[in-house]
């Protein structure tokens, strides 16, 4: 597993508290309770890396995780790589000021972070994309930032239903959207390999 060895670095309330903006990083985004923490843990093979909970809206921080440096071509120094867990979005009980703060910070992060190579967007396969998800995809479209969409909790559907949801999602993507959708399940392990490869590909772009 190329994402093994991930380690907590810091939790930030503002983007200027994040690690130095060098090397390469991939951001994880999703609505609260979509299954983002579970996905991070499954991908890194580290059960307790990101805290999962049944209480949505708890993770109101940006969390940086370092990965072991990626080897590069001969003569090139290994690439410093990170994963950034963006705060879960869309939880109704979060006070409006805090929600606005995070909307602004996520926006700043997406616009200013030079080491950002791509986004992993996590959404529940059973629900249509919500406003936040569409906002992320619109941003990726406008800025040519690649996105891997994990349609998670696929274990809650039959295989046929999951495939149907995936095909419908792909069909709904406008031409030129730099996004790839895939089926995922943290509990069943579905799509974990595919997503790991996608993250490494993003880090290397
Ligand atoms: P986050 O708020 O997006 O970080 O979501 P969590 O990872 O904490 O997960 C929210 C809830 O969904 C928890 O109760 C998880 O156990 C559950 N969950 C997450 N991923 C899956 C999955 O792949 N399958 C199923 N059945 N449940 C999941």
TrEMBL record:
<dbReference type="InterPro" id="IPR019987">
    <property type="entry name" value="GTP-bd_ribosome_bio_YsxC"/>
</dbReference>
<comment type="similarity">
    <text>Belongs to the TRAFAC class TrmE-Era-EngA-EngB-Septin-like GTPase superfamily. EngB GTPase family.</text>
</comment>
<keyword id="KW-0342">GTP-binding</keyword>
<dbReference type="InterPro" id="IPR006073">
    <property type="entry name" value="GTP-bd"/>
</dbReference>
<dbReference type="GO" id="GO:0005525">
    <property type="term" value="F:GTP binding"/>
</dbReference>
<dbReference type="InterPro" id="IPR030393">
    <property type="entry name" value="G_ENGB_dom"/>
</dbReference>
<dbReference type="GO" id="GO:0046872">
    <property type="term" value="F:metal ion binding"/>
</dbReference>
<dbReference type="InterPro" id="IPR027417">
    <property type="entry name" value="P-loop_NTPase"/>
</dbReference>
<keyword id="KW-0547">Nucleotide-binding</keyword>
<keyword id="KW-0131">Cell cycle</keyword>
<keyword id="KW-0717">Septation</keyword>
<feature type="domain" description="EngB-type G">
    <location>
        <begin position="22"/>
        <end position="205"/>
    </location>
</feature>
<dbReference type="GO" id="GO:0000917">
    <property type="term" value="P:division septum assembly"/>
</dbReference>
<keyword id="KW-0460">Magnesium</keyword>
<dbReference type="Pfam" id="PF01926">
    <property type="entry name" value="MMR_HSR1"/>
</dbReference>
<protein>
    <recommendedName>
        <fullName>Probable GTP-binding protein EngB</fullName>
    </recommendedName>
</protein>
<keyword id="KW-0479">Metal-binding</keyword>
<keyword id="KW-0132">Cell division</keyword>
<comment type="function">
    <text>Necessary for normal cell division and for the maintenance of normal septation.</text>
</comment>
<dbReference type="GO" id="GO:0005829">
    <property type="term" value="C:cytosol"/>
</dbReference>
